[in-house]
Amino acid sequence: MNRGWITLGLVVGSTIVGLMGTDLVLPAVPGLPEALGGDPAQAQLVLAAYVGGSCLGLLGYGVLGDRVATPHLFIGSLFATALLSLGCSLAPSMEVLIALRALQGMVASGPAVFAPGIVNAMFDEEDAVRAIGVLGSIESLAPALAPVAGAALLAFGGWHLNFDVMAAVAALLGVLLLASGGVPQVRRRGQGSFLALLRDATFLRYALSQALVLGGLLVFVFGMPTVFVRVHGGTLTDFIVMQVCGIATFMVAANSATRVVRRYGAERVIAAGTWLAAVGALAQFFYALAGGTSALVITALFVPVNTGLGLRGPPGFFRAILASHGDDARGSALVILFVLGAAAAGTALVSPWIEHGTIPVAGAALAFHTVSVACLMLLPKWREDVVSS
Hints:
Blueprint: H1 2-23, H2 32-36, H3 40-64, H4 70-89, H5 94-108, H6 110-122, H7 125-157, H8 159-179, H9 194-198, H10 201-231, H11 236-264, H12 266-289, H13 295-322, H14 328-350, H15 358-378, H16 384-388
Helix pairs in contact: 1-6, 1-7, 1-8, 3-5, 3-14, 4-5, 4-8, 6-7, 7-8, 7-11, 10-11, 10-12, 10-13, 10-14, 10-15, 11-12, 11-13, 12-13, 12-15, 13-14, 14-15
């Protein structure tokens, strides 16, 4: 059991490496035009390229998982991430960095694809639930802590150091996994298909609404470092405070979700969380239209968005898995793919207008939240009698 939990810790660390590709690099984005040339719009593409590459990686690893052993793919992903992170650190121009970031995102998505299956292969049902809870809790802290670490690295050694540290962490985790015996092989059912899930309106109800709420939040988060620093005349501290408050609120709401669902039912909680996040996004947009630039107000309006996501996140994701009819791996992969796709598309669309302030960022986020509400209203629910059986 001890060895299993040690392996789990390394698996959790490996999934966090993928998150580092955005959150650790975020503080360096506003200063990239001065360091590499280009403009703020291109700097935003450094984030969008990574997320877009991750979308392709999710599908690629899903296909390779049927043909190549899980340990080879999982550990190979870490070493490939390390090499490409070093390449990013040595990039001579913004264009080269954007191209390398797309490749980095593709290879770094491996742990996210295989981590749930590895947990199921390592533990019995009770321990697996506990392990997945640990995985989710630690991953939820990464977006809050990684930008703080990224800002410290930026101040200490410049933007190169952010990528160097990511390379070192990925390589170290790969070595430790090899030394500990690697990860277990994930059992594949060989049933179902991505196309079948994409045709399932009930699955899409939960998967798309989940992805659009989180995607809208990420578009806002990805844009705000540049807005705070280059448009509002603030500092990265403004962004870090906003992010820490948002993540703390999310964790409180997510840890309360089970009790709230027990009292009010999953569908009501999913709907309430979705609407609360949408109202918060609407308030952000109206504040931006009014010309508001106060970091304190922006942070306060960010709280209901995170609260809504925290409340609807656990039951919403669980309903998406239920609606995948036993094809858990593909269902989980599609939810992650939808999240990353929404974040990448939104960030890319906003990037040409990023120096116009909060309006385009908040407007894009609001559009995603609005479509999320529409998904809940228009697509069919998962039958309650099936859930309770």
